[in-house]
Design brief:
Length: 445
């Protein structure tokens, strides 16, 4: 039975940390980012803090700034298989693209991970916005934003059918008749669509969660509709409480329009906390990280968010003209993040250098430098104001930033009765308070 908790926390695991200069910090460990022990240490730390889940992103291409930014991370599905044996309760979420995979293979990979982990796996569904990734899969250019979401919609439908293709009681283990499985309870899906033709069934029994948890992170118009239709957890980038509430209410309303229970979708804005014993100390830590950044690296990252637009023509110490930015709706890559960046520029009118520092911290997610109490206050306020069901925690530096959060912020949230002190359930669905879906092919009672 699903067990609900008041507040949900996910940790977003990003090599040496979410600040682009994190690897240069004395507390970072860039030499360990291909060692399983490094990720095991972080996962067990998050589990000690009773986090709902741990999340791994993926881009399917080396970044443009590898000369100056720590990269070379491990492939997410392989890594999660290893981490499932090193942890007992924490959920494990991996990113996989609907643009550069096939439904049958991905369905069996996630179902296998769900079996291996005892029901703790989730799939972060992405359509892959990187032009570099397209070149790694034989395409000369990135597919349009609309086409990627059309393919993603059908992709998820096929995967869900495959996960349902074995009824829960298909295996009967009848030794007297020599019957391992009742084939009447194993179903071909016979999918014939615009993008995929898949016969099915899957080649393995139904997994512990029925469906691994479905996660989505796009906030564009297409992304919101997709999330409202399929996602059970949404990672989003929100800077302002009012904007966060609008997003929260919008996706919940869209979910209801699809006939879904809106409480079954958990919205988790990204939050990159930088802790200090005083606010001034925390801000000094943030400034020290920003001082390590290289403008050329930040410009590359900003350009990538706007389909290669060249921002280097602008003066670093002057505000960028608003009308110089490409309109987010015309961006074929990461539309939602382009919109977040443009909102920052409109609201704060930063110089280009200041904008690069803002984005260096967490790529458009909210960076908050303060004391443990002020970080906990922020989390509680957004949660109680109906702007979030929890947060996607993005430490500036690993592992120290996560350790600080677990040791100093989590206890405050627990003392306030907002967050669990121990795991009540065993599956990722249990942690998020979500039911196990029945197979669509199951016979009626």
């Amino acid at each position: 039975m699903a067990v609900a908790s008041a507040l949900h926390l996910n940790v977003f695991l990003q090599t040496t940390g979410h600040h682009e200069a994190s690897w240069l910090h004395a507390g970072a460990q860039p030499e360990r980012t291909t060692e399983i022990g490094y990720y095991r240490d972080i996962a067990t730390l998050a589990e000690r803090g009773c986090f709902d889940s741990l999340f791994l992103a993926d881009q399917l291409a080396i970044g443009r700034s590898v000369r100056h930014v720590a990269q070379g991370k491990l492939e997410p599905l392989t890594l999660l298989a290893a981490l499932s044996g090193a942890t007992e309760r924490i959920g494990l979420i991996a990113t996989a693209s609907t643009t550069y995979n096939e439904p049958y293979n991905l369905a069996r990979q996630f179902a296998s991970l769900d079996h291996i982990s005892g029901g703790r796996v989730g799939w972060n569904i992405v359509t892959s916005w990187s032009a570099e990734a397209a070149g790694n899969f034989g395409f000369n250019e990135l597919a349009s934003h609309e086409n990627r979401y059309q393919r993603a919609t059908e992709f998820v439908e096929v995967v869900a059918k495959l996960w349902d293709s074995w009824e829960d009681d298909a295996r009967v283990y009848d030794r007297e008749t020599g019957t391992y499985a009742d084939t009447a309870r194993i179903h071909p899906i016979d999918h014939d669509g615009n993008h995929f033709q898949v016969r099915g069934p899957l080649d393995q029994p139904r997994s512990p969660q029925g469906h691994p948890l479905l996660v989505q992170a796009g906030s564009s118009e297409s992304g919101r509709s997709f999330a409202a239709r399929y996602a059970e957890a949404i990672f989003t980038a929100q800077q302002d409480l009012a904007d966060a509430k609008v997003f929260y209410d919008d996706v919940k309303s869209r979910a209801r329009a699809f006939g879904r229970d809106s409480s079954a979708i958990k919205v988790l804005p990204g939050l990159s906390p930088i802790l200090g014993s005083t606010k001034a100390e925390a801000q000094a830590h943030e400034q020290a990280l920003n001082d390590l950044t290289l403008p050329a690296t930040g410009l590359k990252h900003l350009s990538q968010r706007f389909d290669g637009f060249d921002f280097s023509v602008f003066d670093l110490d002057k505000p960028i003209p608003i009308d110089a930015f490409p309109v987010p709706d015309t961006v074929q890559g990461a539309q939602s993040r382009a919109g977040v960046i443009l909102d920052i520029v409109k609201r704060e009118k930063p110089t280009l250098r200041q904008l690069l520092h803002r984005l260096a911290g967490a790529r458009g997610h909210k960076v908050l430098a303060g004391t443990p109490k002020s970080i906990a206050d922020h989390i509680q306020h957004w949660f109680e104001q109906g702007a979030a069901d929890g947060f996607n925690i993005m430490p500036a530096i690993f592992p120290s930033g996560l350790a600080d959060f677990v040791d100093e912020v989590v206890p405050i949230l627990q003392q306030r009765g907002l967050f669990r002190s121990t795991y009540a359930g065993r599956t990722l669905r249990d942690h998020f308070g979500l039911p196990r879906p029945a197979s669509r092919y199951a016979r009626s009672a």
